[in-house]
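Good morning C.,

I know you're traveling, so I'll keep this short. The sequence:
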Amino acid sequence: MDFTGKVALITGGGGGIGRAAALGFAERGARVIVVDRDATLGQGTVDILRQQGRDATFIQADVTQSADVQAYVKATLDAYGRIDCFFNNAGIEGAVTPIYDYPEEMFDRVIGVNLRGVFLGLKYVLPVMLRQGSGAVVNTASIAGLVGGPGMSAYVASKHAVLGLTKSASADVAAAGVRVNAVCPGPVDTRMMRSLEQQRNPANPDAVIDANRAAIPTGRYATAEEVANLVIYLCSDLAGSITGSHMVIDGGRTGSAGSGVGPKK
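The tokens, ready to paste straight into the viewer:
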């Protein structure tokens, strides 16, 4: 778990799991590139790292735009000359509403960030790793990539697709010593969960929290740091034979009968 001298590139690094991963990689010696569309959040992560004496850089980018993705890859190479770990993490939750009422523009936005953004990251980072003959990618999927749930058609579709991209990409690059995996978090104590809870029950979001916790055998949400630790492990030499796989971190939720990605209102 020693990343001294290695370079970790993280999209969606401005908060939540992305920020926790940035802090975790840096604590273990990595030089960190934080990519986020929100300059305030992204720079905020870098400021924390620099206050700790870490080597970190922020790049503002929209992961749905090919030019922006190529730019963050180029900027990383210009700064550090390589990419050892790529946490392909940027994502949005979208709306919570039945599929027959789901806004088309919101569907396109969710697919754009959660799927196209992951595809573009793979498309432009993997060639760097192939030239190096080494590298590890972790895509952020979700238990929504394994099961369905009410009101989350775009999110569920995007995360199922991320698992498909993970499997295909891993097969393309495994022989060259490059690994591609995914993590599938359940409910995590982040801004995204606050948004989903509020959307499911605006009058009483705490009731959604209680229902979610009741559906988790451990009785609690995961922390962003717990998910980040799994990401870091998958990027480490300890996971050298793991590729084309996904790891679930949900407190046992999908292992329980009748699990879904969220309770009804």
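Safe travels,
E.
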